[in-house]
Amino acid sequence: MSDERKANADWRILSLPDGRYAWEAIHAALLMDLRDELQEIRESLGVLRCENFTRMPATLRRIAANTTKRTRSKPGKKRPR
Asked: Coil, strand, or helix at residue 15?
């Protein structure tokens, strides 16, 4: 099966003889705009693939675990073992 998506192609949006656009043309134009926006977002979020950025959640969890206050047992009560 051949790939007929024609990715990143600029499709010509033709108007009807009375100057209006067909719904199919409007949908195609909308999809092209969405594709362009998504590609811009993907390019701007390229920093998210950085190794330091991807390790950040684990580092933050480790910091949180090391900085939380430990609860003290009240005097006179024995700790369960």
From this structure: strand
Helix (H, G, I), strand (E, B) or coil at 67: helix
Q: Is the dihedral of CA 59, 60, 65, 68 positive or negative?
A: positive
> Phi/psi at 21 (nearest 5 deg)?
-110, 145
Q: What's the one-letter identity of residue 24?
A: E
pLDDT digits (tens, 9 = 90+) for 8-63: 666 667 777 887 777 777 787 888 889 888 888 888 877 677 787 778 889 999 99
Determine which helix (DSSP H) or strand (DSSP E) holds 35, and give its type and residue range.
helix 23-44
How would DSSP label each residue in 39-66? HHHHHHGGGGG-HHHHTHHHHHHHHHHH
Contact indicator for 21, 13 with CB cutoff of 8 Å: yes
